[in-house]
């Protein structure tokens, strides 16, 4: 990597992620099938890599209205057509996956991708995976804690002896294959609980905050709890990496972005809330408030997005920003346009300003 390229990629990392929802387009009522959605996700990753973005992620769901249930498989396919972009889960439902299988899958992805694999682990927004894989939702938190404890040991040691409550014990078990990286980078995805943030700090892993709207200041207690707990546990503050994730739509002007995105964003939340048994319709006034300049919803012109990211950087000093752009039945050509604007109009300015 030359000096000029290093300069381009200094500052915070910027990327995109997909949860692969299968929403009908609100204008046509038509929805792409899972196969087409998968092709579009892989193509989006290729575009992001070619445009110079830093991270691409896919999330895990176990429902017919989402296309991705196996992030490492999808990311392995993406690894074959990309060169440098980091590949992460966003998120892995850690409570209901065997940590040994998780490590093996992502270590294999790391070998395939030449050291680009990462994991963002979370507890999941839905509970379908608990009965699907034979777990009890009453053990929601205990499972997450135990699985994280074991994963960190697997990540550190080639031969592991371990005993826990929810899986069979390990006795001098070979943990193979080993990744290209010394250890797989692991982050914890946090929505809104201070205790989850503090736990990520105590573990010394990265923390990715899902900022889906509202005043960014309301997330400051999470950041403070994360860093305070991490330092108290003996971790170097510099190694406590913080990321911000959020919904985004970029167009040439802010008014155009809001006009184009409102039908899809309203559609997305109607879809998600129906899944949770709630009736909800986002009005135009609701959306205008949610997309106002002082909120955490990244909708607007490239300049508006830059300003929002930099405002949050001033607050949190985070290392990474990842945008979810393909939601609510948004046609792929609009997703592709957003990737291009993020990479060419937003990322260079943000990187320059955050590298000072």
Characterize this entry briefly.
With 356 residues, the protein is of the alpha/beta class. It contains 12 helices and 11 strands. The protein has one domain: TIM Barrel (Alpha-Beta Barrel).
Distance N terminus to C terminus? Answer: 20 Å
Strand content: 15-25%
Just name the CATH architecture. Alpha-Beta Barrel
Number-wise, the strands total: 11
Order of helices and strands: HEHEHEHEHHEEEHEHEHHEHEH
Helix fraction, binned, reads 40-55%
Question: What distinguishing features does this structure have?
Answer:
alpha/beta; TIM Barrel; disordered N terminus
What would you say this structure looks like, in words?
The structure is a single chain. This protein is of the alpha/beta class and 356 residues long. The chain has a single domain, classed as Alpha-Beta Barrel (TIM Barrel). Helix content is 44%, strand content 17%. Strands 1-2-3-4-7-8-9-11 form an eight-stranded parallel barrel, surrounded by eight helices. It has a two-stranded antiparallel sheet with strand order 5-6. It is globular.
SSE inventory with pairings:
Layout: H1 3-8, E1 13-18, H2 34-51, E2 55-58, H3 71-79, E3 86-93, H4 99-112, E4 117-122, H5 129-132, H6 140-156, E5 159-162, E6 170-174, E7 186-190, H7 194-203, E8 206-210, H8 220-232, E9 242-250, H9 254-275, H10 284-290, E10 298-300, H11 302-316, E11 320-324, H12 332-354
Parallel strand pairs: 1-2, 1-11, 2-3, 3-4, 4-7, 7-8, 8-9, 9-10, 9-11
Antiparallel strand pairs: 5-6
